[in-house]
Specification:
It contains 1 helix and 21 strands. With about 230 residues, the chain is mainly beta. The protein has a domain at about 20-140.
């Protein structure tokens, strides 16, 4: 239960101490796209490549747990119970729903689920075969619209769902988001001085449309800032 601390802030304001039961999950992160929700996982941090290795190796970490905590009331929700062979990717918040990426390795399936925090209803957005991608390296949900992508070690970006497209990238490029017919990437150079760059590519062809100095920053509510 919430209780007031004895310490004080400026002008005598008391800080609020709140006990939140997370079942041993202590690393919490802002949920991308929301200024209200945090998410936490007991291991892997949402890395499905690591999760598949753990499963294949019959490791004692044979599943992951994924929880969400709402600010300011501290409500904890665990939409999908853990089970053997099931590992979670990094979640997102999109169109007022929590979006989950679930890998069920025994069933050889990847599922994209939508959880409504208001009604607690869970909907299946997509069920994909694990074989849709070579491996789970950098397998992530991205926006916008909602996409499942893989950025492989072979310098390619694959959009796996809701459409399937593959793009060649430069060595240091990292995909951030889609906006309309444009794909936004970040990259960096040392030639010889270090510099950051934003790369904008055409969604249909993958051709570079523009290069801008700076980086991209996502705010808690999902806005994108271009910092130069």
């Amino acid at each position: 239960m919430p209780f007031s601390g004895t310490g004080s802030r400026k002008k005598g304001a008391f800080c609020m101490l709140r006990q939140i039961h997370t079942g041993g999950i202590y690393n919490l992160y802002p949920l991308e796209g929301s200024s209200q929700w945090y998410w936490g996982m007991d291991c892997t941090g949402g890395d499905l490549y690591e999760g598949e290795e753990l499963f294949t190796d019959n490791h004692q970490v044979d599943r992951t747990r994924l929880i969400f905590i709402r600010q300011p009331d501290g409500k904890v929700v665990e939409p999908i119970p853990s089970k053997k062979g099931q590992y979670f990717g990094r979640p997102l918040f999109y169109e007022n729903k929590i979006i989950l990426l679930v890998a069920d390795f025994p069933e050889k399936q990847l599922r994209i689920l939508s959880y409504d925090p208001e009604t607690e209803a869970i909907s299946t957005l997509a069920t994909l075969p694990r074989s849709i991608t070579e491996d789970c390296y950098n397998l992530q949900l991205k926006l916008s619209p909602l996409m499942l992508v893989r950025q492989g070690q072979e310098n390619t970006l694959e959009i796996l769902w809701p459409v399937q497209k593959t793009y060649a990238m430069d060595l240091q490029e990292s995909f951030r988001f889609r906006q309309g017919d444009e794909l936004y990437f970040e990259t960096w150079y040392e030639d010889p001085d270090y510099r950051d760059e934003i790369v904008i590519r055409d969604f249909h062809t993958g051709n570079v449309l523009k290069r801008l100095p700076g980086i991209l920053m996502t705010t808690p509510d999902g806005d994108i800032w271009m910092l130069d």
